[in-house]
Design a protein that fits this description.
By secondary structure, this protein is α/β, with parallel strands linked by helices. Helices cover 44% and strands 11% of the residues. The chain has one domain: 2-enoyl-CoA Hydratase, Chain A, domain 1 (Alpha-Beta Complex), CATH 3.90.226. The strands form three sheets. It has a six-stranded mixed β-sheet with strand order 3-4-5-7-9-11. It has a three-stranded parallel β-sheet with strand order 6-8-10. Strands 1-2 form a two-stranded antiparallel ribbon. The longest helix is centred in the first third of the chain and has 18 residues, at 98-115. It catalyses: 3-hydroxy-2-methylpropanoyl-CoA + H2O = 3-hydroxy-2-methylpropanoate + CoA + H(+).
């Protein structure tokens, strides 16, 4: 444990979370427990955290005493808000992005490991679960949401594109619901998370500690029925008609035109939301989701996402989006290009071009 630190501005005494503290791991009975432990940063993932999770999963996979893995987040706000984009901003602006590329490589390999893990992997998706938080949870075999869950892939808001296997998950959602969530970055609650294939069960948040405790003694199949409840009514199905119609268009420009013309207030609001996003990120995201549908396996989609993520490092919008939303917090990004019409097909294609300095290669388990 590190020494306490006193904040000179407030006299508050805190204990910094080190790399070793940022993922807490323990075993009890038949279960291995992982807790993301950066609550002040909403458990945002760092490269050492990814490595630590992967190491424990590898060890527990070989340990016959560990029959189930459970992952949750420390604090009251949620499982994980995503990758630590402040660190990515610093890396890109001062280090050229090498550390970010290394982080993503290991993170995406971890996402694939979680999806193919041979033991039950129980993700407690309470509270905020976004970006990288989706990557360490929604690929698991047992995905539990609560009445507090807000699940999202909000990357277009910061000039980025859904990753960590997000385009794979969203491409498989019913109709065009996944396209809608990918482009808007909108968050969904428990019912809609189940509807879109991002979760499997609903458990009241107050019961999660007892559920996790019981998994130390009993199999998941015996424990879940005691805690799972019927999912509440979602909201997305009520908008399916205009969502499926509008997002079936071939281009982002046509999607926006259809949203404006369909005559639904919610559709018009959605069009206005899209027009505030990075035009480049929107066009690349649409292409990424459409390609993910054809690619099929998670491993192939992750390889595509790695290309896209690395390409984003050399464009202006990702750094600008982080600046506007997280660094300066002025919420006024200056996108370049600023208009959808100015984003060329060649620029979109650049994001999917083969990498010269090392593709991501994961054995395809499909």
């Amino acid at each position: 444990m590190t020494d306490p630190v006193t904040d000179p501005a407030t006299d508050a005494v805190t204990v910094p979370v080190t790399d070793d503290d940022a993922v807490l791991a323990r075993t009890e009975g038949r279960a291995g427990y992982l807790t993301l432990n950066r609550p002040r940063a909403l458990n945002a993932l760092t490269h050492p955290m990814v490595t630590r999770i992967a190491d424990y999963l590898a060890a527990w996979e070989r340990d016959p005493a560990v029959r189930t893995v459970v992952i949750d987040g420390a604090g009251e706000r949620g499982l994980c808000a995503g990758g630590d984009i402040r660190m990515i901003h610093q890396d890109v602006t001062s280090g050229g992005g090498a550390a970010s590329r290394a982080f993503w490589r290991d993170e995406y390999v971890l996402n694939a490991r979680i999806a193919r893990y041979p033991k039950p992997y129980v993700a407690l998706m309470d509270g905020i679960v976004m970006g990288g938080g989706v990557g360490v949870s929604a690929h698991g075999s047992v995905r539990i949401v609560t009445e507090r869950s807000r699940v999202a892939m909000p990357e277009t808001t910061i000039g980025f594109v859904p990753d960590v296997g997000g385009t794979h998950l969203l491409s498989r959602a019913p109709g065009e619901l996944g396209t809608h969530l990918a482009l808007t970055g909108a968050s969904v609650g428990a019912a809609d998370a189940l509807r879109c294939g991002l979760a499997d069960h609903v458990v009241p948040s107050s019961l999660l500690p007892a559920l996790a405790r019981d998994l130390a003694a009993e199999p998941v199949a015996d424990v879940l029925p005691r805690y799972a409840v019927e999912a509440p009514t979602g909201t997305l199905d009520g908008h399916r008609e205009w969502i499926d119609h509008c997002y079936a268009a071939d281009t982002v420009e046509e999607i926006v035109d259809r949203l404006m013309a369909v005559g639904e207030p919610a559709a018009k609001e959605t069009a206005e939301t899209l027009l505030a996003k990075s035009p480049t990120a929107l066009k690349v995201t649409l292409e990424a989701v459409r390609r993910a549908r054809a690619l099929g396996s998670l491993e192939r989609v992750l390889a595509q996402e790695y290309r896209v993520s690395c390409a984003a490092l050399s464009g202006p919008d990702f750094v600008e989006g982080i600046r506007a939303q997280v660094i300066d917090k002025d919420r006024s990004p200056r996108w370049s290009p600023a208009d959808l019409a100015e984003v060329t097909d060649a620029e979109v294609a650049r994001f999917f071009a083969p990498l010269r300095d090392g593709e991501l290669r994961i054995a395809d388990a499909s």
